[in-house]
Batch of 2 targets.
Target 1
Amino acid sequence: MVNVTIKRIYDSVDKTDGYRVLVDRLWPRGISKEKAHLDLWLKDVAPTSELRKTFGHDVSKFEAFKKEYIKELQEGKQQEAFQRLREIVRENDQVTLLYGAKDKRHNQAVILKELMGQ
């Protein structure tokens, strides 16, 4: 079974990360492309700017954010990118989803990992 993990883009790179995918729409501040060590920046799988701004990393809004984000992944412009992520997970032994948010429990990478069956 494929192992999907999540970590902040600011955390150190580890050889056990496997295939590294940035799942943010915006490039994280202070990180060079070289330092990121990405295999893919899949920005189209990220929440829309409108949904991201509505959430505003307010923990009390996380459940509503999660519901709307899943709806976007299933019905919105993110469908194609979400399918691509699923293919990446199927094709690799280890996938690490990277995000820039400070909150490690309330962000889109947590939701994506959950949807990958992890």
Target 2
Amino acid sequence: MTNEWLIELCGVTKVYGAGQTQVLALTGIDLQIGNGEFVAVMGPSGSGKSTFMNILGCLDVPSSGRFLFRGVEVGKLSRDQRALLRRHYLGFVFQQFNLLSRMSALENVELPLIYRGVPVAERRARALDVLAAMGLKGREKHTPVELSGGQQQRVAIARAIVTNPAVLLADEPTGSLDTKRTREIMEILTRLNRDHGLTIVMVTHEPDVAAYTQRCVHFLDGAIAIDEPQKAFA
């Protein structure tokens, strides 16, 4: 029954520290995300959304409860198995781009394929195709400092999707961009979701950005306060 969901959290809690310093970051989360959904995650600082994303990204495991990815309980996997899950099924996009400054756009996008052992000719072709799809044809040899913020984020998205992940986890992907570049990036993410069926879970503080998604999950004090479809998709 769990296999119908791409992601499923059942009674997930996360506790940091012990005794008087103990912090209950998640208080018993129940959540399901299906294939092809585009979900916004919102909430004030300290609400639990970063902890939630760390668990989805297999960077952390629940203190109790279960997190299942395609029906597999992630908390029962070894550290190496979780690393393989991240490498083969997850893509990550961050607010600060996290590109390697001395590498070209093409080399940055090739990196995940190098880690997978993809042959040179194949990874070069795949990276070029994805950069072209991001509107960066002719910019392949540019280093990050030679690119605008919006272009850098497009390189970061290309790097995240070049491995054809099952899920893209985006943490404030437009937080460093102006309004025009924000719209460009959100149109790219919407296209990836709509045309390619890519499942996206995105943290944002901005209602205008969340409006691009199909569903919005609001965290408050370590719990899900609201989980509802966006009006345009209801």
